[in-house]
């Protein structure tokens, strides 16, 4: 399902630009191919352009420049109601004056389907989201999670091949949100529809997506499957934005065969994976995930470079310990270790050696 | 005609404008120092202020006069004040018909001996004789005679050079096509309709007192009904004439005078069958003594022969005293000879209509209901 | 076991100081209620004085008729036995009673007031009683009064005069209310007036019809404006809002004058239409001094009362509903009609009720621009208040109007549901 990089892409953004005021670009030269059946998430902070992209796809905003194609045909001039795209809105936008059943029947009625067809489809859609018993209720009589399901069912009931979701779980509490994530994912897999999902919640993005497009400042910073995005961020923004991340500043000493050594501010040298650096002497920003740093030398391979670290804080979090360290002048270097059998509990003031696998320390461009 | 007898003596000689003589300050024993006078506002009230109120105040500097412009609703307001038990007005300018109503309702005071209240004419003729028949009841002191009459545009192409000469030309749509403005009330219109339907002037009210007569009047009015714009405020007709919305219309003669003389509109007067009406003073019933003393003192002054003649300097309404008529002449203020513009001028008053107050007091409610019903049919 | 728990066991809960909880609660609430009552007391007093009392007074006046029994107490009693349906005049005792009453009334000068009152029912009563008050004192007590009265005015020998007095001899009468619906009291009971004198029912109907038309036009014109106000950015919508509220800030008379300039037959609009050749000079449109004038002027005046409630309701409708509808395949019209409009209905209801009820009571504008075909029932009420002084009839007409409005309100509640109205 991770297909869609080729010419047969289902949704294509080609050099799309968008400006509201004629002075600044909200979306800058967007190029994106989405494959049929793919679950693609647009992730980014607010104002990054992700929602604008979604709205352009839905037809509620027009691209200032560039083409958007759906199933091979340009849709720039097709009004939203003829695009046949299902959409789930942030606050569900269930019509308050209609019952759940009427809400679901609406898209079918405007398509002039027969009564019997409508009834069958509505029933099927409701059953799919386990809301079969609620057809006669008004949206106001439903809980947030139930409304969410109805909104989902309504977006799917007319057999749209593409469903857009604009932060659909934003209004739900944490537990329900996690539950719904799985449910949406499940329905997606079951129906094989293409989903373009917008969120600013990286956990949600990582959980659900086939691929994630990380947006910042009107551009896609990285487009990759969740694992790649987390493990192999391609730039400082992605590294910072996805998951927890430690950074260290330094200068490239040597670089060869996909490996490099970096000298930190305090003079110590560590190993790293060159991602955005290419020559010795270049300034770099090292990115290390907290769970990949290790202070037990026994777990590190022979010859791994380590650095001296002073323990500043030890926080007990149940399943893990979280330790804040000072490394090369950075006082916010965090490591996480499992509360496993025999795990050592560090004490503030203690000085330890910390190291990591070279491939877990990514040398990115300096900020 | 009584009216002609009363006003026919108007001297045509140009008399020098009666200049206000500087008078010595007069005294008024046990008199209130404020007086609320109710009038109509506009040019008419202005003529009263100039002719009587300012001269009186010059003689009585201690007096403050409050002007209220509520005469149009005077009867309703008087009744409301009387019901509330707090009458704030001291002297009320009203139409004769309203005075009769207020007198019947007991809202205004009755004068037992009018000659004790009003000044005699300069030659000693008692006021009761000088005002004569215009003293229509015991509550009302008339000031002016005005008339409701017609004005027409002088530039109507469709008329082929002809101009209306009698009131019946108003009903002649063939010779004088165009819209007419008539007052939205039965009074005058019913009489004119019967007159033009061939009823002798003296028999108009006898005929109008029968159902057949009313029917006859409405039938006559029906002949022009779709060409009539009905007015309620006197200022409307001059405006409608000036705008060319109507070609002929009835209104108060003073309104037409301003349109013709002061604004030079292409309008001329049709005096035939002009309907005389009176406007004058009433005093609210049961005033406190000091207020009553003040009002009576003012009233004595304001209705004397010279004062009523002075008023005609400012507005083209005839003074209600016959002794004032000869004093009306060239108006320094307006720069015209007033006499030819007076409804009472012999040339204008060759054929007049007397509005019968008593008859209308009895029949107004009934005929108005019928008139309104007819209007909406 | 403490006392409190013992009480609890018996079913009455005690507060901390030992008083039963219910008493304690009531005491606490009483202070609160008293404070609340004091806060609304000025409003309550104002409503009673400025609203309820005038309405009560109006209702009372529409049936009140005490002036007749008060002025002619003996006559009214003497007339009780007289058969009004018969052909015979009441006998000498009645005339004698009338004489006695009139002597007293003339002294108090109330006979003319009675004359004004009865003249509303029978033309001529005014002068009849004025003369009778004057003449009664000079009558000879030794001769039959009947002859003396008839000698003074033959109308005293007319049976209709006596029927009128008899019909209106009660302290309360339904005469005004009957009159307000084009009926009259007769000796044979209430009857419809002759067709040529019926006017009020027609005016009530016209008032309803024109008010409905005006409501419809304000809705037609106001809906798009309110929608625009609701979706435009605040700065632009504030500017439009000022234009909407402009009618509140200009003098009615100034506006009336400009309507005349615009709408009259020699006015700007007609000139323009003639100039562009849409109508011929001979067929200029009549747009003022008739119902059209009233509709145009009042639609303008009442437009803000439609726009404001519509706007406040529309502002609460999120734009995402329209987007949702479109994404579901509805074209612009379907999205509006099926999704947006139903949600704006509470605003439509509120605006319609407001405009309709306001226009039903309007009289100045119809008076100024309505001519004869554009006047409302309120114009007749105003006429009877300030010109004819027939306050009883004015009150009866106003009472009828109140009943009609309440009835319409009830119908509206039945059809639309008053809960379905939102002012903001």
Please outline the helices and strands:
The complex is a heterotrimer of chains A (367), B (377) and C (424).
Chain A: E1 11-18, E2 27-34, E3 39-43, H1 50-58, E4 65-70, E5 73-74, E6 85-88, H2 100-110, H3 115-128, H4 144-156, E7 162-166, H5 174-191, E8 194-199, H6 202-208, E9 211-216, E10 219-224, H7 226-231, H8 236-241, E11 246-256, E12 259-264, E13 269-274, E14 283-288, E15 306-316, E16 320-327, E17 330-338, E18 351-355, E19 361-365
Helix pairs in contact in A: 2-3, 2-4, 3-4
Chain B: H1 2-7, E1 34-38, H2 42-59, E2 64-68, H3 74-84, E3 91-95, H4 96-104, H5 114-117, H6 127-131, E4 141-153, E5 180-183, H7 189-196, H8 204-208, H9 211-222, E6 228-231, H10 236-243, E7 248-252, H11 253-262, E8 267-282, H12 289-302, H13 305-311, E9 318-319, E10 330-331, E11 336-337, E12 352-354, H14 357-376
Parallel strand pairs in B: 1-2, 1-3, 5-6, 5-7, 8-12
Antiparallel strand pairs in B: 3-8, 4-7, 4-8, 4-9, 10-11
Chain C: H1 3-10, H2 21-61, H3 67-71, H4 73-79, H5 92-108, H6 111-119, H7 125-136, H8 145-152, H9 159-167, H10 175-180, E1 183-184, E2 191-192, H11 200-231, H12 234-249, H13 252-263, H14 268-275, H15 291-314, H16 320-327, H17 332-360, H18 364-369, H19 377-386, H20 391-415
Antiparallel strand pairs in C: 1-2
Helix pairs in contact in C: 2-20, 4-5, 5-7, 6-7, 11-12, 11-15, 11-17, 12-15, 15-17, 16-17, 19-20
Detailed description of the structure:
Chain A has helices spanning 50-58, 100-110, 115-128, 144-156, 174-191, 202-208, 226-231, 236-241; strands at residues 11-18, 27-34, 39-43, 65-70, 73-74, 85-88, 162-166, 194-199, 211-216, 219-224, 246-256, 259-264, 269-274, 283-288, 306-316, 320-327, 330-338, 351-355, 361-365. Chain A has 367 residues and is α+β, with helices and mostly antiparallel strands. In chain A, helix 2 (100-110) packs across helix 3 (115-128), helix 2 runs parallel beside helix 4 (144-156) and helix 3 (115-128) crosses helix 4 (144-156). Chain A starts with 10 loop residues before the first strand and ends with a strand. With 377 residues, chain B is an alpha/beta fold. In chain B, strands 1, 2, 3, 4, 5, 6, 7, 8, 9 and 12 form a ten-stranded mixed sheet that branches. In chain B, strands 10-11 form a two-stranded antiparallel ribbon. In chain B, helix 4 (96-104) packs across helix 14 and helix 7 crosses helix 9 (211-222). In chain C, helix 2 packs across helix 20, helix 5 (92-108) packs across helix 7 and helix 11 (200-231) packs antiparallel against helix 12. The mean pLDDT of chain C is 90. A two-stranded antiparallel sheet of chain C has the order 1-2. The longest helix of chain C is centred in the first third of the chain and has 41 residues, at 21-61. Chain C contains 20 helices and two strands. In chain C, strand 1 (183-184) and strand 2 form a beta hairpin. The chains are: A alpha+beta (367), B alpha/beta (377), C mainly alpha (424). Chains in contact: A-C, B-C. The A-C interface holds A 58-60, 79-87, 89-91, 93-97, 106-107, 110-111, 154-155, 158, 164 and C 318, 320-321, 323-332, 334-335, 338-339, 342-343.
């Amino acid at each position: 399902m991770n297909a869609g990089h080729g010419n047969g892409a289902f949704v294509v953004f080609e050099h799309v630009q968008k400006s509201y005021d004629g002075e600044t670009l909200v979306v800058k030269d967007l190029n994106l191919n989405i494959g049929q059946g793919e679950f693609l998430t647009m992730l980014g902070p607010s104002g990054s352009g992700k929602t604008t992209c979604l709205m352009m796809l839905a037809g509620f905003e027009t691209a200032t420049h560039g083409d958007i194609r759906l199933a091979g045909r340009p849709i720039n001039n097709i009004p939203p109601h003829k695009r046949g795209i299902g959409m789930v809105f942030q606050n569900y936008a269930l019509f308050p004056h209609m019952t759940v059943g009427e809400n679901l029947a609406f898209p079918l009625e405007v398509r002039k389907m027969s009564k019997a067809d409508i009834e069958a489809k509505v029933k099927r859609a409701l059953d799919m989201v386990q809301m079969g018993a609620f057809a006669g209720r008004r949206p106001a009589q439903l809980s947030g999670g139930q409304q969410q399901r109805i909104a989902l069912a309504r977006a799917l009931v007319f057999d749209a091949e593409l469903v857009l979701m604009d932060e659909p779980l934003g209004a739900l509490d944490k537990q329900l949100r996690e539950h719904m994530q799985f449910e949406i994912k499940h329905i997606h897999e079951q129906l094989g529809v293409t989903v373009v999902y917008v969120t600013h919640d990286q956990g949600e993005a990582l959980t659900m997506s086939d691929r994630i497009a990380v947006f910042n400042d009107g551009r896609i910073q990285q487009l990759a499957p969740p694992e790649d995005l987390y493990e192999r961020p391609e730039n400082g923004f992605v590294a910072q934005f996805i998951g927890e991340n430690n950074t260290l500043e330094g200068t490239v000493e040597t670089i060869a065969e996909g490996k490099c050594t970096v000298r930190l501010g305090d003079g110590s040298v560590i190993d790293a994976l060159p991602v955005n650096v290419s020559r010795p002497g270049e300034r770099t920003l090292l990115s290390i995930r907290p769970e990949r740093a290790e202070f037990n030398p026994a777990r590190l391979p022979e010859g791994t470079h380590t650095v001296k670290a002073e323990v500043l804080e030890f926080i007990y979090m149940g399943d893990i310990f979280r330790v804040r360290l000072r490394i090369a002048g950075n006082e916010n270097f965090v490591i996480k270790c499992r509360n496993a059998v025999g795990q050592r509990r560090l004490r503030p003031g203690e000085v330890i050696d910390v190291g990591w696998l070279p491939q877990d320390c990514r040398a990115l461009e300096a900020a | 005609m009584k009216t002609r007898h009363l006003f026919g003596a108007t001297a045509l000689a140009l008399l020098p404008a009666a200049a206000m003589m500087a008078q010595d300050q007069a005294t008024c024993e046990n008199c209130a120092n404020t007086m609320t006078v109710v009038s109509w506002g506009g040019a008419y009230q202005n003529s009263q202020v100039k002719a009587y109120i300012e001269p009186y105040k010059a003689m009585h500097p201690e007096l403050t006069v409050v002007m209220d412009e509520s005469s149009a609703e005077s009867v309703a307001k008087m009744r409301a004040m009387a019901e509330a038990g707090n009458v704030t007005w001291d002297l009320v300018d009203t139409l004769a018909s309203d005075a009769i109503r207020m007198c019947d309702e007991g809202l205004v005071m009755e004068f037992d001996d009018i000659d004790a209240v009003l000044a005699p004419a300069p030659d000693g003729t008692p006021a009761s004789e000088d005002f004569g028949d215009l003293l229509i009841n015991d509550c009302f002191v008339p000031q002016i005679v005005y008339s409701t009459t017609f004005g027409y545009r002088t530039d109507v192409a469709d008329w082929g050079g002809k101009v209306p000469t009698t009131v019946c030309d108003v009903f002649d749509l063939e010779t004088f096509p165009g819209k007419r403005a008539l007052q939205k009330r039965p009074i005058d219109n019913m009489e004119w309709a019967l007159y033009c339907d061939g009823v002798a002037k003296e028999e108009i009210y006898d005929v109008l007192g029968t159902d057949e007569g009313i029917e006859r009047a409405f039938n006559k009015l029906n002949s022009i009904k779709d060409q009539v714009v009905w007015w309620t405020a006197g200022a409307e007709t001059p405006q409608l004439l000036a705008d060319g919305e109507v070609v002929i219309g009835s209104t108060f003669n003073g309104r037409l005078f301003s349109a013709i003389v002061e604004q030079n509109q292409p309008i001329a007067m049709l005096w035939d069958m002009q309907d005389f009406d009176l406007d004058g003073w009433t005093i609210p019933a049961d005033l406190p003594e000091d207020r009553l003393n003040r009002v009576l003192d003012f009233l004595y002054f304001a209705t004397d022969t010279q004062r009523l003649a002075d008023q005609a300097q400012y507005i083209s309404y005839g003074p209600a005293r016959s002794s004032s008529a000869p004093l009306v002449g060239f108006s320094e203020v307006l720069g015209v000879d007033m006499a030819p513009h007076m409804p009472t001028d012999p040339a204008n008053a060759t054929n007049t209509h007397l509005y019968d107050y008593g008859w209308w007091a009895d029949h107004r409610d009934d005929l108005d209901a019928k008139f309104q019903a007819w209007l909406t049919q | 076991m403490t006392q409190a728990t013992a009480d609890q066991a018996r079913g009455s809960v005690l507060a901390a100081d030992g008083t039963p909880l219910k008493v304690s609660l009531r005491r606490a609430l009483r202070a609160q209620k008293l404070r609340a009552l004091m806060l609304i007391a000025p409003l309550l007093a104002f409503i009673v004085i400025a609203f309820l009392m005038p309405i009560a007074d109006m209702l009372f006046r529409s049936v009140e008729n005490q002036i007749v029994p008060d002025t002619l107490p003996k006559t009214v009693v003497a007339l009780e036995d007289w058969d009004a349906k018969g052909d015979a005049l009441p006998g000498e005792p009645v005339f004698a009673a009338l004489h006695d009453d009139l002597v007293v009334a003339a002294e108090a000068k109330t006979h003319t007031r009675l004359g004004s009152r009865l003249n509303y029912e029978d033309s001529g009563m005014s002068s009849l009683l004025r003369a009778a008050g004057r003449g009664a004192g000079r009558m000879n007590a030794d001769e039959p009064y009947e002859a003396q009265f008839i000698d003074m005015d033959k109308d005293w020998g007319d049976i209709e005069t006596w029927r009128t007095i008899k019909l209106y001899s009660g302290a309360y009468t339904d005469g005004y209310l009957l009159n307000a619906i084009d009926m009259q009291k007769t000796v044979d009971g209430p009857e419809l007036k002759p067709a040529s004198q019926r006017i009020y029912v027609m005016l009530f109907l016209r008032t309803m019809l024109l008010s409905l038309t005006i409501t419809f036009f304000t809705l037609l014109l106001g809906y798009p404006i309110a929608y625009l106000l609701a979706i435009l950015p605040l700065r632009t919508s504030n500017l439009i809002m000022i234009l909407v509220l402009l009618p509140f800030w200009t003098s009615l008379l100034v506006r009336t004058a400009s309507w005349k300039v615009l709408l009259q037959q020699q006015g700007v609009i007609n000139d323009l239409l003639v100039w562009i050749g849409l109508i011929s000079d001979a067929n200029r449109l009549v747009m003022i001094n008739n119902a059209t004038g009233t509709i145009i002027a009042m639609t303008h005046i009442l437009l803000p009362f439609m726009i404001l409630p519509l706007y406040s309701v529309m502002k609460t409708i999120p734009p995402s509903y329209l987007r949702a509808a479109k994404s579901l395949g509805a074209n612009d019209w379907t999205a509006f009609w099926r999704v947006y409009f139903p949600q704006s209905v509470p605003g439509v209801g509120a605006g319609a009720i407001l405009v309709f009820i306001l226009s039903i009571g309007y009289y100045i504008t119809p008076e100024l621009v309505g001519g004869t075909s554009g006047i409302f029932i309120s114009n007749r009420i105003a006429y009877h208040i300030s010109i004819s002084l027939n306050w009883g009839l004015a009150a009866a007409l106003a009472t009828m109007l109140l009943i009609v409005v309440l009835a319409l309100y009830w119908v509206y509640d039945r059809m639309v549901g008053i809960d379905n109205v939102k002012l903001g």
